[in-house]
Amino acid sequence: MLLACVPFFLALLTLSNGLSFSYSEYYHIHMIFLFSLSTNTHHWILSMMHIYSHLSMYVHACIHQQSTAFISFTAFMIVQSIAAYIAKSEAMMGDSAAMAVDSMTYAFNLVAERMKNKADEEDANADYSGITMEQKAEFIRIQNRDRRKMRLCLELVPPLISVSTLIGVTIVVLHDAITTLILDSQREEEEQSRPSLELMFVFSTLNLGLDFLNVCCFAKAKHAMGYNTMDGEENNTVAGSAARRKEEAEKVVEKIREGATRHRTKRGGLGSNDSNVAYAKLKPASYEKQNGGELEMNPLPNSIMGVDEETVGYSNSQEKENAQAEKYQPCEVDGVLGDNNDDNGHLSTVANANAEEKQERANLNMCSAYTHVFADTCRSIAVVIASSIAKLVDGITAEEADSTAAVVVSVLILLSLIPLFQGLVQTATELKAIREEEKTEESPDVTYV
C-alpha cells in the first residue's frame, strides 16, 4: 500500500508546478492507483513505468517543469529497464533504450531553454538611448535575426543528436533481435531463454489503452492524423525559405496598415503610410481644446503610437523622437517588430498576425509528441500480438516471439523518425538562408538605402 502513494506524490509534484491535466492524464493517475493496489510488485512496476512517459510530455511549459520532467522521466526509464531485465524481454529493453534517449533530449531542451531565456533577458535590458528611431530599428532588426539564428541552432542541434543516438541504439537492438532469431532456428527450445509473456502482455495491454486515449486527445484537437513538419515544398530551398519570411513580413505590415486605417476612419487625420517593417511611427489623431483654450493632444492607443501622454510637449521633434524610442517596447514577429498589447489589454494587430501565421506554420515539437504517441501505440500492438501468439501457438517459443516483436519495434522507431528528419532539414534550410543573408550584408558591394 505504501507503493500506491508514489504515483500520487508524483502527480502532486507536477500539479505544484502549475500544470493542469487533461482527462487523459487524470485517467492515467487513476489506472496507476488501481494497479498499485495489487499485491504483486511486478504489477506495480508495470503500472508505473512508461505511463509517466506520456505524462511528462505535458510537463515542459517552463524550465522548472522541464527539470521535473527530466528527473522523473529518467527515474521511470530506470524502473522500466529493471522490469524489462526481470521479464527478459528484448522488446521492452528496446523501448527502455528509446526512453533513455528521450530523457537525454529533455536534458538538451532544458539547457537550450536556459540559453534562450538568457538571450531574451539581455535583449530586454538593451540600452537604446542616444540613437534615432531609424538606427534603433536597424539595430533591433539585426538583433532579432541573431536571436532567430540562435534559436534555430538550439532547435536543430539537440534533436539531431537525439535522433542520431536513437538510431544507433535501435540498430543495436535490431541486430541482437535478428541474431537471436537466426540462432533460435538452429537450436532446441530448451536452449532458448524464456521471456515472461505475462509481464509483456500486461505491460503492453495497459500502455495500449493509454496510447489510444492520447490519440483521442489529439483527435479532439483536430490532429488525429498528426502535425505538419514542412511548411511547403517551396521551403525546401534557401530561396523558398527567404521568400516565405518576406511574405510573412508583408502580411504583418499589411495588418499594421489595416489597423492604422481603422483608427484613421474612427478618429480622423491619420494616414496609413507611416508604417514600415521595423516599426509603426504614427502621429496624433486629433486635438481637443481644454484648460481655457490651450491645445492638448488626444493620442491614439499606445500600441499604435508607441508613446504615451508623458512624451508630449518636448522642445523639438528630435527630443520627442528620442523619448518615443525609450518608451517603445518591440516584440518579435518572425523578424518584424510591433507592440504586444493594445490599450484594452488585447493582442495588437502585429501579435494577432503572428498568431495567425503560427497556426499555418509547421509545429515540430508537437509533431515529435504525436510521433512518440503513434510509434508507442504501434509498438504496444506489436508486443501484445507477439506475446499472445507465443502463448496460444505451440510452435512459436517465447524467445522467438519476443525477438520478432523487437524487430517490429525497431523498424517502427526508424519509420517514425522520417517526419522529424524532414522538419530538421527545413530548420537547417532556414538557418542556411539567414547565414547567406548575413554574408550578403557583409559584402562591400552592397549599398543600403
Automatic annotation (TrEMBL):
Signal sequence, start to end: 1-18
Domain of life: Eukaryota
Protein's organism: Ditylum brightwellii
Residue ranges of the TM segments: 28-46, 67-87, 152-174
Gene Ontology MF terms: zinc ion transmembrane transporter activity
GO cellular component: plasma membrane
Annotated PANTHER family: CATION EFFLUX PROTEIN/ ZINC TRANSPORTER, RE54080P-RELATED
Membrane topology: Multi-pass membrane protein
Main location: membrane
Protein name: Uncharacterized protein
Cell location: Membrane
Protein keywords: Ion transport, Membrane, Signal, Transmembrane, Transmembrane helix, Transport, Zinc, Zinc transport
InterPro entries (alphabetical): Cation_efflux_TMD_sf (IPR027469), CDF/SLC30A (IPR050681)
